[in-house]
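<purpose> Linking amino acid order to shape
<body> The protein record starts here
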Amino acid sequence: MATIHSIKAEPLSKEAFSPFGELLDVEEMSASQATSSPVNFQGGKVRVGTALLPYKGLRLTGLEQHFHVTQAFIPISGSPAVVAVAAPTPQEDDNAIPKPEDVRAFLIDGTRGYMLHKGTWHSDRLPLYEPGSKMVIITDDETNQDLKEHGSMSDPIDRRGGWKLNRLVDFQHAFGITFEITL
């Protein structure tokens, strides 16, 4: 039987999200201004893609970590969603997995994107409604290929037996924990 660990979703703000990444928005800008953020693609070629994430409810069991890339997620459908995150942990330490109490969730209103710091643990975006959420994802080709080649959760704590650029943890399988996001 799984233990439910409840996480209250917080409003997405620059200050609250800063340990995990930065916001991509124009909230505090006036006309004709632009902003940019540096990206870290140690893995290689930039990959820009789109995704439709279906509505699945507000429970999750898995978090993933990417060692060599900052990733950006930019909503294009205006759909609200939540994302669970935890601070980066050292790549070299296979046991450096976030504690459930260190996982936070943020409410994304569908008008602002975000970019995760390299190594930040994160869930998939969880849309709040049907049909789901459309987004642009900016990552690198090598991280994406590594996920495709080794994308199973056969080991509940994937100790990178084949992984080079990623780590995934299924908290339910490994620890009997399911996260439930509350609004």
Remarks:
- The chain is about 10% helix and 40% strand.
